[in-house]
Design a protein that fits this description.
This protein is α/β, with parallel strands linked by helices. The protein is built from 12 helices and 12 strands.
Length: 338
Amino acid sequence: MNQNDFSIAFYDTRPYDRDAFTESNKKFLYNIDFFDFHLNEKTARTAKGYKVVCAFVNDILNEKVIDILSECGVELIAMRCAGYNNVDLKAAQAHNIQVVRVPAYSPHSVAEHAAALLMSLNRKIPQAYLRTRTGNFTLNGLTGRDLYGLTAGIIGTGRIGRIMADILSGFGMKIALFDVYPNKEWAEQKGYTYYPLEEFFKIVDVVSLHCPLTPETKHIINKNSLSLMKRDAVVINTGRGALIDTVALVHALKHRQIGGAALDVYEEESKYFFEDWSVNVIRDDTLSRLMTFPNVIITAHQAFLTTNALSAIAHTSLNNIKAYVDGDELKNKINIEE
């Protein structure tokens, strides 16, 4: 196949995506069209004439969308992210559409953002910043606590979770771990300990979520797990929004069952994140309620957003496409059994 015959439709793109992919594409010279709207049932027919679509975390690739993509002649879905819970893999397989992803880009970017959220939440940096901007230099209500000596709980010990564990260990925190597939050799080398889930929630002061979203991990933070946690414990989520039952989280925050939460993801984020709603009414009552708590920080799926990560995402995505064009092995192909 001639790579210049391959046109690629990029969905849900922003200026930073376009800059990174345009720079990386100098090596490949693909015909790329960038769209700022989401890929979904209403927009899928815009893929007519493209052999490849490149999608992101909040695009919808359900059975109906994939049916339309197949009708449009799409042969490859290139996810420019690690997660793929928004893709109907069975439908793609039925239409012989291959699906590839970016399994890792910059795990440091996500782990460092998670650590920044923890520090900001603990030391009330947003409130302090807003005060001093208006000339208010009082310290009342800004008391934090030392992280040194506290226990950090890491759920999910893949690359990002392991980096987060090392960062927090560097603060002098004790490290408690949970993973369905524990990396015991790494934990033993580091002096970290895996715990059963119920015991894990009882002993940690910080819970940081770094596991993939699966049927087993959906709402791993729920009414029961929140009830087990210390009243001053905090939850950090830079993984997937649906790892947390948000209604249960709001209840726990309202009744002071936990100390706070810092979220870079939200289970119903697709309508709001990456968009400007500053002059509109947010109709999601749960999200609106979360935003009222002084002990909650929300960033809009920003953890990946570093120059390093964007460059790696572009490079890997375009190499995935090149492998398909050249008929080579798709090393980052998503198999249905995954």
